[in-house]
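Hello, quick one for you while I still have it in my head. I'm working through a protein record and want to make sense of it properly. Would you mind checking whether the C-alpha cells look sensible for this chain? I owe you a coffee for this, so here goes:
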Amino acid sequence: MNYRNYITIEPNKRGGKPCVRGLRITVYEVLEYLASDMTEAEILEDFPDLMWQDFKACIAYAADHFHNSKQYGKNVSQSWSSGYWQYES
C-alpha cells in the first residue's frame, strides 16, 4: 500500500498534522481509536467519510515514520508525559 495516496499534510488544516485524504481526521486520531479497541466498523460508523483502506494507510504511515525516526531502536519508558512517550537514551 502506498499511504501517500491517502495521507495528506496541509499547513492550514489541523495544524499541519497528517490527515486522511484531506479530511479533518488525523492519522493519530485513527490510530488512537484503533489502539483503544474500537473496531474498524465502529470507527466507520462514527466517521462515515473514512474508507476501509484508510486504516491500512494510517498504519503504513505510522510504520514508515517510526522506522525513519531518530527514536527507532530506543527503549520506550513506561511513563506518558505531556501526551508523548518518553524515550530512554
